[in-house]
Structures are given as C-alpha cells and as structure tokens.
Amino acid sequence: MTLLELLTLLRKHLKLVIMLPIVCMVAMGLASVLMMNDTYTATTDMYVLASSEGSNSSSALSSDLSASQMLTNDVATLLQSDRVMSDAADQLGLPNLRGYDITVTSESTTRVITLQVTSSDAQGSANVANALADCVSNVAQEVMNVESVNVIDEAPTPEAPSGPNRMLYVAVAAMAGLFAAVAIVVLMDVIDTRVRSAEDVEELLELPVIGRIPEMKGGR
C-alpha cells in the first residue's frame, strides 16, 4: 500500500480517524482525574561539613577537597539507609516511611545534597524530608568523619501538586488513539475483498478492461 492509498483510506474514514483519538483523550482525562491521586514533592538541600575543615594547613585542605566529594556521596547513600529512615519514622511517630517516594541527588562537583520526598500528603512530605535531614546529620556524625550535615533550606509544605502529569497521559492517549484508528482502517481494507472498480478487476484477472456499462438511474 502506497502513502497516497493510505491517505485516501484515511480520508474515506475521516470520522473514525478524528473521533477515536478524541474518545481516548476523554477517557484518559477522566481516568487520570478519578483514579490518580495528586502527589506533592517537598525538597530540602543540605551541605556536608567534613571534620577536617577546622585545619588551616594546605595539605589538609587539599586532602579534604578530594575526599569530601566521596564523603558527600556516602551521606547521600546514608539518607536512604534503613537506620536513617527508621529514626525519621520514630521521630514523626510513624511505623515506617512506606508510601513516601524518597529521591536523593548529589553532584560530583559540590557537597550539596538535594533530598526530595513525594507522597499524596503535602504536609507529610515536608515533615518526612525535614526529619530525614535531621536524622542523617546525627547518624553521619556517629559513623563517618563528618562534623555535621547542615540544612540549607528546610522543606516547605508544597502548595501545588507535582504530579501526576495528566497532560502527558492525555497526549499519549491521543497518539495511541490515532495509531489505533490507522490500524483499524488498514485492517478493514485488507479484509474487504469486494471488487469496487475496473482497476480491481484488472488486478484480479490480469486482463485489460475493454468496455464499461454505465450505471442507469431512473430509466428503463
């Protein structure tokens, strides 16, 4: 099937090609509103202060510059450890932190750690983020060569939801509906074996058409 033939088929079934994506968009929009809860992301930034920073020697500063980046990555990993999460849950009076999506990012060129906590509870996300930042400082001082993990910005209570991205889901549903419409049109053409024109007769019989009988309307 050539592109021109496909376009002709789509034009012939234009109503289906237009309506199916619209139906998919509406269905996905309703599903995202009725079945998907809003989620809220609370963010806090922390700065890792190594114990050796109190020294003024150049060798100590040079050593700290190279080691502190690795130490920051260790603290970022520690944030997601069972001990820190358990301490944070105890501090908040929660049995555990299930239901909270915790994301920790640490750049290789800085000692700043970014912690994001996402859940369906805006205030709960902020409380968990701040509790984790507080608990990781205590644990890091105990088990690592860290003077403190200082909070740069406490996590505020998010005012607007961070997800789900309903517009993206609707756009994907529209594309899926369009592809489905094209597939249905092509399938309908493939399974339809009726002869509609002289060109179909020539293709089936491999014989030239030498005459045509015009359609008679309203006559004898």
Automatic annotation (TrEMBL):
Q: From the UniProt record, which GO molecular function terms apply?
A: protein tyrosine kinase activity
Predominant location category? membrane
For membrane topology, the record states: Multi-pass membrane protein
| Protein location | Cell membrane
Write down the InterPro entries for this protein, in alphabetical order: Bact_polysacc_biosynth/exp, GNVR, LPS_length_determ_N
Q: For this UniProt record, give its keywords in alphabetical order, as a comma-separated list.
A: Cell membrane, Membrane, Transmembrane, Transmembrane helix
Q: Does the keyword Transmembrane apply?
A: yes
| One Pfam short name | GNVR
Q: Where is the Polysaccharide chain length determinant N-terminal domain?
A: 2-92
List residues of the Tyrosine-protein kinase G-rich domain.
Answer: 138-187
Q: Quick one: a GO cellular component term?
A: plasma membrane
Organism domain of life:
Bacteria
Please verify whether the record's keywords include Cell membrane: yes
TM segments? 16-36, 167-187
Q: Give the family per the record.
A: Belongs to the CpsC/CapA family.
What's the name of the protein?
Answer: Lipopolysaccharide biosynthesis protein
Say which species the protein is native to: Enorma massiliensis
Give the organism's phylogenetic lineage. Bacteria, Bacillati, Actinomycetota, Coriobacteriia, Coriobacteriales
